[in-house]
Amino acid sequence: MVYKTIVAVLQDEDDAARALDVAVAYAQKSDAHLIGVHAEALPVPIASPMGFPDAALMGAEEDMSRERAARLETLFSQRMKRERVSWEWRSMYSFSGDSALSALESARCGDLVVAGQVDPEKGAAGSPDIETLIQGAGRPVLVVPWRGTATTSAKRIVLAWNGSRQAARAAFDALALIVQADETTILSVDPVASPGAQGALPGTEIAAALARHGARVTVENRSSGDRSVAEIIAQTVTDKGADLLVLGAFSHSRLKEMFFGGTTRTTIENPPCLTLLAR
User: Are 106 and 138 in contact (CB under 8 A)?
Assistant: First the structure.
């Protein structure tokens, strides 16, 4: 797949630059059209000490939102003109002010969605809802970590493989990147926990399918022991010096992940590198 329409979710000024570094690089590689999406929260009624709506405070809050949106639009448009990328800007207002939620409609008509992870110290209120974006968009979402260097060369890739529909979707959504990589490691963690689900030799069939496209692949099986699957995946990314992790999202129910944690949620919260998730 060639990514010809890329949607960049820009929550605030801090994550926008990092997300755009990745989005612009991918857009330039495939001569793609880049859509920037940002949302601000609708003004919340604020009561005065007398119990009446405080128009002055509400107006000041609305002015701050408009100014922030204008700064992001300027940052985006100037970058696009400088990089000579085909682009458009979509600024929205919603009750949540969550740019990821507001980007859903745009994302469903794109080939690839890029979302920057916000510094966790800002708290959940300042972070885009990447989980819902992955669940609702139906398109691959590239999560840019809030720290470290997110290279866009993707010379070494780790594909987490558990034989699920989600893993298959992620593998083929990332095919354009996999065939260009120097090496792709197909990683199965605790494959004997579900014998038959992935065949006699876990990972070999998807490896053969990708190799027919010209991908250079190796298969590796690891045991988690007393560690989580997410920890094993992150360790493999480190061991391989991988630039990109490809992961099928929510192969277990999202409700289960909410209550008990899970590989997808852990990876979204702390991606070991640039991470493509698909469902």
Answer: no
Average pLDDT over residues 266-274: 92
Instruction: Find the helix or strand (DSSP H, E) in which 89 lies.
Output: strand 86-94
DSSP, collapsed to helix, strand or coil, labels residue 107 as helix
SS3 category, 122: helix
> What average pLDDT does range 113-136 have in this prediction?
82
The conformational region for residue 51 under phi > 0 = left, psi -120 to 50 = alpha, else beta, is: left
Residue 182 is given by DSSP the state S
pLDDT in tens, 159-190: 999 999 999 999 999 999 999 999 999 999 99
Which residues are CB-contacts of 275 (< 8 A; sequence separation ≥ 6)?
Answer: 142, 143, 145, 244, 245, 246, 247, 267, 268
Average pLDDT, the chain: 87
Residue 55: its pLDDT value, please?
Answer: 56
Residues 6+ apart with CB under 8 A from 9: 19, 37, 99, 100, 103, 107, 113, 114, 115, 116, 128, 133
Answer whether 75's CB lies under 8 Å from 13's CB.
Answer: yes
Beta strands 33-41; 112-116: pairing state: unpaired
What is the spatial distance between Cα 86 and Cα 194, in angstroms, rounded to a whole number? 46
Q: pLDDT per residue over 194-240, tens digit each?
A: 545 555 578 999 999 999 999 999 999 999 999 999 999 999 999 99
Separation CA 130–CA 72 (nearest Å): 19
Please report the pLDDT score of residue 259 as a whole number. 42
Residue 92: its H or E element:
strand 86-94
3-state helix, strand and coil shares in percent for the chain, rounded to the nearest 5: 45, 20, 35
Could you tell me the CA-to-CA distances from 149 to 19, 55, 65, 123 in Å, in that order?
11, 44, 30, 22
Q: Quick one: DSSP state of residue 149?
A: -
